[in-house]
Amino acid sequence: SSDYRVYALDLKTGEQAWDEPFATGNWVWGAPAADEERVYVGSMDHHLYAIDQATGRQVWQEDIGGSIAGSVALADGVLFVGGVDKKLHALRADDKNELWVTDDLGGWVWGKPLVHQGYVYVGSLDGRFHAFAVSDGSPRWQAVPLDGAIRAWAVLLSESLIVGTDSGNLYYIDT
After folding, report:
1. How much is the pTM?
2. DSSP codes joined into one string, 120-156
3. How many percent of the chain have pLDDT more than 90?
4. Quick check: helix, strand or coil at residue 47?
5. Residue 43 in contact with residue 24, Cβ under 8 Å?
6. What is the rounded average pLDDT of the residues 97-125?
7. How big is the CA angle at 118 (ends 140 and 114), to the nearest 5 degrees?
8. d(CA 64, CA 8)
9. For the chain, what percentages of helix, strand and coil (3-state, to nearest 5) are there?
10. What is the signed CA dihedral for 165, 79, 14, 3, rounded to 10 degrees?
């Protein structure tokens, strides 16, 4: 929430699941990711947080070097998160160790990364769409230039990506 908090509600009753909401140091604009034990969320305070699902208490936090405006992606125990530092970060969910980080992508990474078949796909506000190997962060192909900033995440359709930009255009990119 923009009140610097993360809320957990019981789906059946609508009541708060934690004694109190989890407090971050700034706005929370993106959606969290979750596994069986934890919720992972980024904040504009530069931190990625791991929160215990049962208690709402912090397990760990990590400063990625820039505000996190977008959503966090989780795949096979690895968190993928971009920020206003113009980079994509891959961290182990269990202990927050950074596995790799990209070079400057040219613009903020705002949309949620999409992970599919060993690659992670993400757009940046400079209008370029990127693909990296999940294993080591190496580029799959050269960034694809699009018309307009990319704020939302891509949608997978068969083996192609559908990407929208703030210019009002939709693009179809073969993975």
Report:
1. 0.95
2. EEEE-TTSEEEEEETTT--EEEEEEE-SS---SPPEE
3. 98
4. strand
5. yes
6. 96
7. 85
8. 24
9. 0, 45, 55
10. -70
